[in-house]
Amino acid sequence: MMQRLGPATLSIGIGLLAGACGSSPATGPTTTAGSEPNIGAADGPAAEPDAGAPAVEPTQIVRVTIVSGEIEGKMPNGEEWDGKDEKSAHTIDKSLALYVKRHPELTQTTSSIGIPIDAAKLAEEARRSSAADPMVIVQVDDVVFRSPMRPRAFNPVWDFTLQFPVGPGYSARDTTVRVQVVDYDGPTRFDTLGSTVISVDELLAKPLHQLGAFGSVKQLTVEVATIEVDDPKPEPSVFRIAVPGNAKWTDTGVELTAGQRVAIDAADEVCTSGEKLSACSGPEGQRKTSSYNLPGFDSLGHGALVAALGDTRFSIGRDRTFIAPSSGRLRLGVNDTKSDDNRGAYAVRIKVDSGL
Ligand SMILES: [Ca+2]
Ligand SMILES: [Ca+2]
User: Fold this and answer.
1) Other Cβ atoms within 10 Å of 58 Cβ, number
2) How confident is the model at residue 39 (pLDDT cuts 50, 70, 90)?
3) How many angstroms does the Cα of residue 336 sit away from the middle of ligand 2?
4) Fewer beta carbons within 10 Å, N or C terminal of the chain?
């Protein structure tokens, strides 16, 4: 069913992994004193984005893993979590709003944030419980990433990795990274548990950080690794798969890390109602919506190509280039909950940029 072209190595090419272990500086033949992460060094001129300059390759990729956390068992006022929360109509958290704004592919999917595509009841349980249901939002420069939600967890393990480039024209080492932990209270309802800031330079100073306490977050464990970017950088990995209209979700086998640049394009036709020709369309979807649209895609054309990474959903349509908003196995689907009467398949090409 799935045909892979290009290197079988996902995400970052193996060649890039030299020096990825922050704890062992003598890794790999390319690691010399000069190419080591410039820990704490105020080296050279700052990365000044020069408007007219040609694009410069990043020299390093920083990989940050939000491993786990520890949340206070009570709210600051001593009450149980979410004890009497129903009266206040929160709007979507400011950081989440920015997250959605910075990722156009997430447009109109906010009602499904935190709901995994294969465990819809999880969110319902989280909503009813009086425990914290934390997720982490990380902002680097103007790019924002989100970890999956961990329902009913005062000791959540996210194991959420994101990456960003460092080098001329990219994030500078004095860039501030903002880490915010929020509690999921239902669609578009979130409480801030705490937020903290740390610079890229501080992050790179050691491979393991214990952040906190901040707000109701007692502790947050963060791992950091750097990857030297090969010159020339490896070719993107390309995968071709078929997304059948009569499948719920199709596992592409492609693992994405938040921050990777991905381009997806699709062709061919899917019909969402047996032989009815008016219910056939390309990956952009039909001109109409339907009560059978998937959760989170209510206003998207029926039958359109959509994607999911864990509990993050987004629309693809005929083509979409994006920076992965979260991490995990990429799954693709057709915007139709009643898939058993569907015909046809979309032919999809996924291009994952190896070195950003
Ligand atoms: Ca909650
Ligand atoms: Ca159908």
Assistant:
1) 21
2) very low
3) 6
4) N
Q: What is the pTM of this model?
A: 0.81
Looking at all shown ligands, the one closest to residue 135's CA atom is: 1
Is the domain spanning 60-82+89-228 CATH 2.40.40.20? The answer is no
Question: If you measure from the C-alpha of residue 267 to the centroid of ligand 2, how many angstroms do you get, rounded to a whole number?
Answer: 19
- Identify residues whose C-beta is under 5 A from ligand 2, the ion: 272, 336, 338, 341-342
Task: Determine the average pLDDT of the residues in 193-209.
Answer: 95
Report strand pairing: 60-71 vs 2-5: unpaired
Q: Which ligand is nearest to the CA of 187?
A: 1
- Count CB-CB contacts under 10 A for residue 42: 9
| 150 CA distance to ligand 1 middle (Å) | 10
Residues in the chain: 356
Model confidence at 202: pLDDT above 50: yes
* Distance (Å, whole) CA 74 – CA 317: 44
Distance 280 CA to ligand 2 centre (A): 10
